[in-house]
Amino acid sequence: MNRIELKQRGKAAFKANYWKSVLVAFLLAIAVGGFNAGNASYNVDTDEVEDLFDPSTSYSQEVISGDTLSEQLNEQGIDADFSSLLGEQATVTAEEDSVPIVKDVGTVAGLGSLGMLLTIFLFGPLEISCRNFFKKNLSAPAELEELNVGFVPKYWHNLATMLLKTIFQFLWFLLLIIPGVVMSYAYAMTPYLAADHPELGAKETIDLSRNMMKGHKWELFVLDLSFLGWIILSVLTLGILEVFYTGPYMASTHAAFYKELCGQTSAPTDVVEADLPAEA
């Protein structure tokens, strides 16, 4: 494949439908990146943490007053007032060496569960929708209605396909990093195929992606590598360039790669009939 032509085609397509492409690329980044509930950085003194949660101390018991807990924490060098709200979220500051304080376990657990639910039930179909948008956008400026493809009418099919793809990739990464990366490229066409061929089963879609990518995984890897300069600039601009240029540029170029791989130059995109399962 001619890498330069693919990038030129991708760039022209997303520029012709700029703001919609930026929005969809942003959604795609969220879908691919997954859900992050947020992380906090703490400077932890291991000895103090062990002392703080020692079962022999009174504030680790089930029933304790706010005043008693405040006194115990103050003795540990932590300035906190729990006299009026025990079990609720409190603002805690530590002197010099700080220790981690779980302020609201229920909220943290809830965010973790929400992240898992979003990953399973939203992000897979959303990626299919976004990939479909950029594929359609290559032929003519696409509308945001293309984002429905991942959800209607084959939502459960799309969910199962992307979930199975994720599981397969995870299992490959458990073996070694390099096989995991290689197989992630083998499965790269799965979202496009799920949008174009909802009649296929989840496993059939993934297998078809593997067949299509035989002999082409290195080409896609080199294509991604050619964006390294733009990726570095995106990092230097704190992600601003990623949102408004690099992201939609790469997504559009990937769609051009898929259509070229299918041997098509205009919509609708279909895979070679020989690769499809025979009708009963």
What does this molecule look like?
With 280 residues, this protein is mainly α. The chain folds into two domains: 3-38 and 121-275, no CATH class; 46-99, no CATH class. It contains twelve helices and two strands, in the order ααααββαααααααα. It has a two-stranded antiparallel ribbon. α1 (3-16) packs across α12, α2 packs across α12 and α6 (155-175) packs antiparallel against α7 (177-186). Residues 35-66, 82-103 and 264-280 have low confidence and may be disordered.
Relevant terms:
280 residues; mainly alpha; 2 domains; 2 strands; 60% helix; 1% strand; disordered C terminus
Q: What is the global morphology?
A: globular
In the predicted model, the low-confidence regions spanning at least 5 consecutive residues are: 35-66, 82-103, 264-280
- Based on CA atoms alone, the radius of gyration comes out at 25 Å
What is the number of beta strands?
A: 2
Beta-strand residue fraction: under 5%
Contiguous helical run count: 12
User: Major β-sheet, in short?
Assistant: 2 strands, antiparallel
Helix-strand pattern? HHHHEEHHHHHHHH
Give the distance, in angstroms, between the N- and C-terminal Cα atoms. 35 Å
Q: What average pLDDT do the residues reach?
A: 76
* Largest sheet strand order: 1-2
Structure classification = mainly alpha
Number of domains: 2
Helix content: 55-70%
